[in-house]
Amino acid sequence: MSSDTSVEQKTDIQHHEIDMSSANAVAAHTATQMHTHAAPSLHNKIQPAPIGFGAFALCSFVLGLYNSGLITSLPQVAVGVAFGYGAMGQFVCGICELVLGNMFAATTMLTFSGFFFTFGIMMVPSSGILELAMASGGLETVHKCMGLVQVGYAIAAFLFLLGTLRQPILIRLVLLQVFLAFLCGGVGGLTGINNFNLASGWISFTLALTAWYVMAALLYTPDHTMIKLPFF
Question: How far apart are CA 42 and CA 99, in angstroms?
């Protein structure tokens, strides 16, 4: 009896094993056939970097116009872009990077989104900061306040730059220009030397071009276009 029972148990085990392998094969075949219709995994679905770089590029371009005085020296020209795209775009990117576990990218994006939030808040008349600064010392006080903020962000950008020494050249180039733009803008605001503000504006232009290139290099895939940009 015991030997017959053991034989039957082995037969059942083998039978179940054959069923499981067959089920796996069928599932794998079905997944292969329906790959294009299946929902991608979280890591494949969320690719936030182009959003962050695109937001940074556009805001840097508009701030470059303001700092260089090429078209206008009115800071409110950048407030809408700073709130609507720069701050929100990088904030969304930073949160997505945080979800994906990319702490370095999340920290940088959330930090720089904070700058555009800060810039927008300081330049919106309803916040009262601009009115108070103008009453305290006029436009010079406004420039000093912005200079102080930019010096702080220049320090953060330099620390981020040191953390990208093993990253691609384009990433290092973006952060180098961010550091230089903040540094020149901060020095110009604190000292009142306009040439530093002009330098910050022109560096912001080159920063915008570099960030737009990174955005395009990440977005231009064979699924979307025949154009391929090297990412180095």
Answer: 9
